[in-house]
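In response to reviewer comment 3 from the previous cycle, which asked for concrete evidence that the modeling workflow produces usable outputs, we include below a single protein chain processed end to end. The sequence was submitted unchanged, and the resulting structure tokens are shown without manual editing.
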Amino acid sequence: MPVLSTALRRYHEENGSMRHIERNNGPQVLHCMWSGGIGGAERAVFQFIRSQIQRSHYRPAIAYSRAQGFYGDEIRSLGVEVIDLGLKSDISFTQALRIRKLIARFPIHQFHSAEITPMLASVLCPGVRRIYTHRSGDSEYFGRQRARYEIVGFMARNYFQGLVGNTGCASTSGAHVTRTHVSKWRTIYNGIDFSMLRPRRPREAVASEISLQLDGSVVIGTSARLTDVKRIELLIQACAKLKPGSFWLLIVGDGPARTNLEALSRQLEIDIRTVFPGMKEHIGDYLQLMDVFVLPSSSAESFGNSAVEAMSQGLSTIVFSDGGGLLEHIANGKTGFIVSSTEELSARLADLALCPELRLRLGDAARDYVTRRYSCENLVASYDDLYDELLSS
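The workflow returned the following structure tokens.
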């Protein structure tokens, strides 16, 4: 049972409840984000909340601005309070007073996305400690996006007590877009519940479902929301340079870029060996089919949960040299590969296809590294320290 810190004792003294508390009987933390649909950030927050229930003396709740989605339902099934803010737009100032009434009772508000109206509602709540966790890499924003971050930056500079990036890259990016000094930011890496990645179905059954033949060819895979930031076209182009019929390409995910990616695979004549199974809830079933994992994201990638998840399953993993926060996961040639072009990616894929021993060596080192560094225990302990610090200030 955790020992009460000075900050936590002070909180209970101020609120007339100096009884010895059990885990999860401490102050409530309200997590805030746009939706609970299927996605990397949504999955990361779900795992964070589940780990808080298991390991923290703070009690989590969550407020979604719009659709709750798959992970919203999962969080509700844990017995956690889920609040639907019912917003149709990120900028709806007239709704701030209504939302304030819904969230004012929580002593800590933690925002996992930059949302003007909920943040403004939080600012209107006296005595609340506010945290913003930035989950984007090196991005430049223009137009309405730039205007949004100007407003968010003003609130961050004047009304937020905690500024966090989920990688060092995210901390630097957050400081830039909010125009705050980088010294005000701390880095707290995502924690991943690796037990969630255990396959739930036999490998052969999953392969049969998606018409992927387990014929001894190397299976090159990725898992992502299919957007321009992920640059999956680079993976398709690299695979097109490999010996025909020597591989399967498995692209798990969905998104606005999917139609163009499918067309590209046809254009490069590898569509017969390329599988697009769509978005999947239990990614561990599909990771077990892969021999190599590639996430070719741009510098806008902050953390890249899917790459870390693949590494935890012993998959040799490749990222690009301009891949933002992904570079913080991989020691080139030791826990994976970092490449700078499609030609280099293709060469690395050919090497890994021909050398199972190399795949095993990289995969074992990757698994050992990420499971130690990105544990849920580390995540919860780091945020508990931050919450304690804010309540004592």
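The radius of gyration is 22 Å. We consider this sufficient to address the reviewer's concern, and the full set will be provided in the supplementary archive.
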